[in-house]
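Recap for those who missed Tuesday's class. We walked through two folding examples back to back. For each one, the amino acid string is listed first and its predicted structure tokens come directly after. Nothing is annotated here on purpose, so try labeling regions yourself before you check the end of the notes.
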Amino acid sequence: MQNKKILKTAALTAVGTAAAALASGEVFYELILNARVWDRLTQLLHLADPVTEDIYDRAPECLEGLRWMEEQSPAEVRLLAGGGREYVAHKLCPPDGGSKWVITCHGYCGHGVMQCVYARHFYERGWNVLMPDLPGHGADGARYTTMGREEAAAAVKWAEYVAELHPDAQIALHGQSMGGATVLIATGMKLPRQVFAAIEDCAYTSLEDEYRYELKEKFRLPVKPILPAADLVSRLRTGRGFDGSSPIASVAKSDTPTLFIHGDRDTFVPFYMLDCLYNACAAPKQKLVVPGSYHATNAYLQPELYWNTVFEFLEAHAPDAGHVQP
């Protein structure tokens, strides 16, 4: 009788532990991968990443960029992507047109037109700019983001869209943070021949690596059982785990020339991930370390260094390199 009670208690404890673990994974998945929830919480609680100490210093430039974007009246573009999915983007084309195109990908909790500051630099140098709302963000209909996997598939679709409409196009991919991870994953996929370069800014090595780092270093929470449980929830909901969002695996099979950019004071996506990605990349590559820069602030804190490097890299790898303005 005593043994039965012990077994029953043990069984109930195991079930309770498993249920608690699954619940922790469900909460983690819902809070982190439902970008709309986090966006609402951020707005409600006025939260800001404490490591991005200059967030308010760059706010005026962002506001100026948004006003500039509104003046340009970017055209909305919708793209049927199969399975009932519809992707949404905005595009800007300079008056004199041209064959240069950039697809610039926003970060977590962003949307396409929030790439305004980046878009302006490209546009004013004669580039056509496409700014997609990545899955789970902006006008996109998906409820959840995958932090790179589905986002990269969308970026490839947009590249195919540009290439089909403009066979002579020369396309560069650009993105920061989650958008940078998106770009890197896309380089490991089948891209149109018109895509000649990729620029990633402060991307993580893999979603699993980033979540493990955040749980341990930022939230002081145990990786187990939270991360495995959240991965299980992802598999149950989408059929894929976090391993599907792995830039470091993608760049190992890439042949797209890639510029890697990271701030040396980034503690959100830790700086060491830059060398991990760069060293794993099989394609022609270059890296830029932005001194004194935090997460996703590289173009704001060191604009001359950032944009000179970006356009020199694009000029070096473009099929008609001499046509890119210095």
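Example two. Treat it independently of the first, because the proteins are unrelated.
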Amino acid sequence: MRSGDFESAWAVSDAVLRNLIRSGQVCWHLPRHQQFVWRGDRLAGNRVLVRCYHGLGDTIQFIRFAAPLRRIARDVTVWVQPELLPLVARARGVDRAIPLHEGVVEAEFDVDIELMEVPHALRTTLQTLPAHVPYLAPTRDTPPFNTARGRKIGIVWQSGDWDPRRSVPASLFKPLSALPGVSLFSLQRGPAKMQAALIGATDISTDDIEETAARMRRLDLILSVDTMVAHLAGALGCPTWTLLHADCDWRWMRNRSDTPWYPTMRLFRQRQYGDWDGVMAGVMATLQAGPVAQD
């Protein structure tokens, strides 16, 4: 997957699936994100339940596969995190979206599959990866930020706790606020949002993800670590710069400053482990070079 050879990855996945079925293993005792849901059952012509058992960013990234899934399935129901329900319910290929909860799903279906298993089931390749953006959009709008002059940049510096290597010290964002014609707006959620004022950013964060999407569309650039906000910005088609640590997740592949997942996204990578100073120096130099450009 890191090298873009999806076909070979699916061959490995096929072998894992065969062994799983042969052994009769049951995965329901595992945490949701480690469960195997799809057992190779036919999707074409059936009512398919898509379970969203991974993180919010994963759901945002992979809900794009609802459209090609719906082209072969009779019906697609998505059991999705409540925070994402308004956005996912209107995504192409989704017949209905219902809020994820503990216990049994209240839906009729013939086959179920976890959302991140769908590209395997569809035999997606790098060439057939659904990459049209935007594929998510909020129904609401939000007033423009009239007090800001020049380039309005939304920033996120801290990711979830499960991989703290993705987070950048907030202090490294402060020099950006001193650039002529740049206004910083914090989209940071959680306790770390309290640092916004210390780095010269106006806090516009909210726990309402659809409202976050509306606010992001009023900005000129989203500058984020590898977290949900980066995926949301990419899905909305916003100009986005994503900051990656040296051993980043497989989905960002290797040695690329662009990504096939999001046409309006640019990647800034660590060249050495822990070197966020070098990454931010690259960001600073690119901002100083001129207007935000689409790759």
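Answers for example two:
The CA atoms of residues 138 and 210 lie 6 Å apart.
The chain has nine helices and ten strands.
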